[in-house]
Each structure stands twice: as structure tokens, then as C-alpha cells.
Write a structure and sequence with these properties.
By secondary structure, this protein is of the alpha/beta class. 41% of the residues lie in helices and 18% in strands. The N and C termini lie far apart (52 Å).
Length: 405
């Protein structure tokens, strides 16, 4: 019922968005004498803002067709090197260029597509052989493909690392910090030659008991049964994954939007003012951000519920109690993987100390292979995108990788 109601609303808004677009074009048309009236630009701008906010969105593309290396433009193509039911490993191949540290960027499975890390990939491309985990929208995966939970996530990561081969580095952004850490523990215990040389964790919920945020409190103040009864929905029959139980991406987006509703409203008001003034470049920058931010995908119910249980309610990893297929995940098994923990001073998703805990629980890892960096003034999104990421944080990551390559 929940998903069907959403689909009805989405269909209605899609129609309203199309009508608003037509209205905006009417009032912006220089051949229309009414567009020169005093209220014409204001009405056109208001319609354009509504049309953009209400428009339906699909999976965005990375659009990284080139990069610059040593002042020269180099063509880039995307290759899918491993394909599995719930995700694929994508490589950004720099045409005619080989070498550089192999880096797998693990994208969050938290309601957004991997393209949310476009800026992360773009910044690391000139100097690294970059791979990324490209997770699928659960509503697009047929029920016949089976389940996908946190254990499967860890298995995927190990398989991806083994495909890339020895000597690779791993960078986890937010949610995958826990499964990446678990994979590193298991691969270290097995002396797997493909274990990462370095593991960079950025704004991840390693120990959510540290400086709990609104997201953490939401996950802990309700019993586990509440989540299964109230936020799990069934994919409608209009999608390939019809009948699959999921945590819908639109619920995750609604939660994130409500956390900073005032800021989002001000962003759209500023976009409206830019349009009225004819400052299309500034308006387009806001549109590009929300095109990505509002492009959401579903998670399987089993993955979502297991994550709530293991990461947020029981804190299994930092307590040394996390299990992977009846096997304990032991942080002490990590003895030679250099770990870099990065946190944002103003992160309202993963509070200060939550990612740093990764260094504390790695009790057998030498201090020379541990590093902590706190990005001053950075919020959650700013850790991996924007000027702070490009100018302040990325150089720290690059230096850490180079030091331990």
C-alpha cells in the first residue's frame, strides 16, 4: 500500500511537472508579449522551480568522459569488469594510460546511486586506476535472483578485491565503512593476498555510540520490529523486482530532507531568485545537486534490517561481536592494512569519533599504519564532494596511499 501510494503521487507530480514546464516556457518566450509584463519573470521562475522539484528521476550517469593528466586531456571510458545480480564493479579506464595505484571506491548502499560519488571519482582519476562499486536498485532485481544482506555485501567486496588483484587500495564512503572493515578483517585472517594495502574510511558508522546523531537516535529509539512493520514495502508489479521486500529510497530521501528542511527550502528559494535575475549558471548548479540528491534507489529489506541490527542497535563490530556467516569478524586480525579515518567537523550523519573508532579497535595494527584526519568545516557531503574534498581531503588520501603503496 505504501509503495502504491507513492507511485500514484509520483505519477501525479510527473504530470504537474510537465505542465509547469510548459507554463515556464510560455512565460519565458520572447515572442509572447505577456512575458514582458512585470510579473512574467517571477511567474516563469516559480513554475521552473516547481517543475524541477516535482520531476521524476532515474539513475544518473557518471559522465566522466575525460580527465587531465600532466596538463593533457585523456579520454576515459567505463568498463563493467564484474557483474552480479545486486551490483557490478566498474572501472574507469584512462585511454592510453596505465599504472598508478589501483583504487576501489566503495559507494554507499543507502538510498542513492554510486554517481553520488562522481566528484570523488573525478578527483582521484588523474593519479589512480579507479574502480567503483555500482549497486543496483533493488526494485529492478527479480525475486528469482534471491536475497541480498550484509553478509552478501561483504562477500561482494571480497570478490571485487580478488578480481582487481593484489596491491589495491580501498576507500569507503559512509555506510560501507562497516562491511569494508569486516572484509579487511576476514581477508587479513585468511592471509588473502588480495587484501587492501590501505583502507580509507570517510564519515562511516564504525561505532555509533560515539557522538550519536539524529540518524543514530532514530535507529536506536525504536525496537527492531518497528522497522520491519513500518518502513518495509513490497515492490509493485510495474517493476522487474515485483514482490521483493525493500526499504524504499523515497523514505530514505524523505528522512534526509526533513533533517535539514530549512536549508533545502532556502536552496530552492535562492534558485528562484537566481532565475528571476537571469543568473542561469547559479540556478543550474543548484539543479545539478538536486538532480543527483533526489535520484534514489531501494535497498533489500534483509540488508536494511540487518544493518539496523548489527551497526546501529547492537554495535557488533566495535564490541568484537560481529558475525559473518557464523564466523566472528575480529578487528585484531588486521596487522598490515594501513587505515586512514576521515571525519567532517560538521557531519550530521556520522558524528565525530564514530569513524575514528576504526583505529582504536585495530589493536594489533602498528601506530605507524594508523592516521586520523578531521576536516574542519566539512559536513557529511563535503567530505567526499566539493572544494574541501578536492583541495584539503583528497591530498591526504593520495599521500596515505602513496606512502603505503
Amino acid at each position: 500500500m505504501l509503495y502504491n501510494s507513492y507511485e500514484w503521487q509520483r505519477s501525479w507530480l510527473a504530470g504537474a511537472s510537465a505542465l509547469a514546464n510548459v507554463g515556464a516556457e510560455f512565460w519565458q518566450n520572447t515572442a509572447n508579449p505577456f512575458s514582458y509584463l512585470g510579473g512574467g519573470p517571477v511567474l516563469a521562475s516559480a513554475l521552473e522551480v516547481f517543475a524541477h522539484a516535482a520531476a521524476p528521476r532515474g539513475k544518473p550517469s557518471f559522465g566522466l568522459n575525460q580527465t587531465e593528466i600532466n596538463g593533457k586531456s585523456v579520454a576515459v571510458r567505463e568498463d563493467i569488469v564484474v557483474q552480479k545480480p545486486f551490483g557490478q564493479l566498474k572501472r574507469f579506464v584512462r585511454e592510453g594510460r596505465e599504472g598508478g595505484p589501483k583504487l576501489i571506491i566503495v559507494a554507499p548502499m543507502s538510498g542513492h546511486y554510486a554517481t553520488l560519488l562522481r566528484g570523488t571519482v573525478e578527483r582521484m582519476l588523474p593519479s589512480h586506476d579507479v574502480y567503483i562499486t555500482d549497486w543496483r536498485d533493488a526494485r529492478s532485481v527479480p525475486v528469482a535472483a534471491g536475497r541480498f544482506d550484509l553478509d552478501d555485501y561483504v562477500d561482494y567486496l571480497i570478490e571485487f578485491m580478488e578480481h582487481i588483484g593484489p596491491g589495491a587500495h580501498m576507500l569507503a564512503v559512509c555506510q560501507p565503512s562497516v562491511p569494508c572493515y569486516a572484509a579487511a578483517c576476514l581477508m587479513s585472517a585468511d592471509k588473502n593476498p588480495c587484501r587492501p594495502k590501505t583502507l580509507t574510511l570517510m564519515g562511516g558508522p564504525i561505532d555509533t555510540r560515539e557522538a550519536p546523531t539524529a540518524v543514530n537516535l532514530t535507529a536506536t529509539q525504536r525496537p527492531h520490529s518497528w522497522f520491519s512493520q513500518n518502513v518495509i514495502a513490497t515492490v509493485p508489479y510495474s517493476y522487474p523486482g515485483a514482490g521483493r521486500k525493500v526499504y524504499p529510497g523515497f523514505l530514505q530521501l524523505g528522512g534526509f530532507m526533513s533533517m535539514n528542511l530549512g536549508n533545502h527550502m532556502m536552496s530552492h528559494y535562492e534558485m528562484f531568485k537566481h532565475l528571476v535575475r537571469g543568473d542561469d549558471a547559479s540556478a543550474d548548479a543548484t539543479k545539478e545537486f538536486y538532480d543527483e540528491y533526489r535520484s534514489v534507489c531501494d535497498m533489500t529489506a534483509e540488508f536494511y534490517l540487518q544493518t539496523i541490527d548489527v551497526v546501529f542497535q547492537n554495535h557488533a563490530l566495535p564490541k568484537g561481536e560481529m558475525m559473518h556467516r557464523d564466523r566472528r569478524v575480529d578487528p585484531a586480525a588486521i596487522k598490515d592494512i594501513a587505515i586512514l579515518a576521515i571525519e567532517g567537523e560538521r557531519d550530521d550523519i556520522s558524528g565525530l569519533g564514530q569513524t575514528k573508532a576504526a583505529l582504536t579497535i585495530a589493536t594489533k595494527l602498528p601506530a605507524t599504519r594508523k592516521k586520523y584526519y578531521m576536516a574542519e568545516g566539512a559536513g557529511h557531503y563535503g567530505i567526499f564532494n566539493g572544494s574541501r574534498w578536492r583541495d584539503k581531503i583528497a591530498p591526504v588520501v593520495e599521500d596515505w596511499i602513496a606512502t603505503h603503496n
